[in-house]
Batch of 2 targets.
Target 1
Amino acid sequence: MRHSYRTKFILLLSGLFAFLVTSAQPLLWPHHKKAVIVLTYDDALLSQLNNAVPQLQKAGFKATFFLTSDIDPSTIPRWRSLAKQGFELGNHTLYHPCSSSEDVTVSSDHMTAYQMVREIEIMNRMLFAVDGKNTRTFAYPCAETTLGGKDYVDSLRRYKLVKYARIGGDTDAVVTDFSHLDLLRIPSFGLEDSTSSAALIAYVKKVEQSGGMGIIMFHGIGGDYITTSSAVHQELIDFLVKNRKDIWITTFQEAMDYAARHSLPDRQGPVPLRAH
Ligand SMILES: [Zn+2]
């Protein structure tokens, strides 16, 4: 089969890309762990406080909760207590604006980037009032990086309100090349309703084999919506407990701070390479 010049050029480029991807060295994670898993929970849901938190506490795992202004006088003391225990409270905007659909209460269709940035800024202040922290991570509502079709990530970047931001993705969301990672577009495995424990564990194994980082995006746990059952959540936790020697389970900010210190181009010192 003959290739046109254009095809040859594309083949050359994809070869180069494959080289770049495979040449990225996996990070050496703390305590000789092989990989990191970050558990994240969106939308400040009561089912997370009632069902996910006790399972996480029992296992001794920290996780990240992306909160909105749905936090209220009855839950704020509980979120605050979690922050004191080392859990992370992340920013998920005030009103969770998304592109219009039937279950969206606040539409982002006609919002400007500045309006969105202001929402994130005010939510940062609200979270500061809860936990006193000055650095914040962010998760895009509905995993959308656009407003009315226009991308606002670079606008958000200019305001320096958040250190790292999580986008969506599927089971391919495994980060191994941290030196080329956009810190405001960090992919995650966004669960659908009733994801099985087999699917979750298969993803964790894939992350472990890659030597990289995998972020899981949960919503309801044993209740609310886009629900993962409490039993499935517990099975994942049990698997992680069994493999805690090899897998680091920590918050989004801690995992990324570590990765940034050890692999991003502007960090100090040489890249510690995994011994082969
Ligand atoms: Zn959300």
Target 2
Amino acid sequence: MAQVCVDRVVGEILAGWRYDISGLAPEMREDYEQHFIECNRCRSKQRLHRTIDFGLIIIASGSAIVFLLAFGAIRHFNPARALLLEIAKLQREHEEDADRSMANNLTKFTGRNPMVAAE
Ligand SMILES: [Zn+2]
């Protein structure tokens, strides 16, 4: 793999662009395309960089798809909200039970029902 670039100046320019000349105007591109034909090292570097680029595109697209699936699943099943409502309901029932038994005890000991407004 220890290949040497046939024209280091052009090779360094290409390295600065990550071996991507697709953004260049066609008439400017010719010299660099010629260099890719002549230079094994830059050609293999170009292939490596495009492989990395497409790998990243595939990974990003895959994670976007997984995100949308998860988003859809959450919207469809709504598990977090249902769980919170369940907990809130249990808490409210527990507090009402506690209030009722407190009132019963007070009624037992004082003979008055504290839930009924004092007259
Ligand atoms: Zn080169």
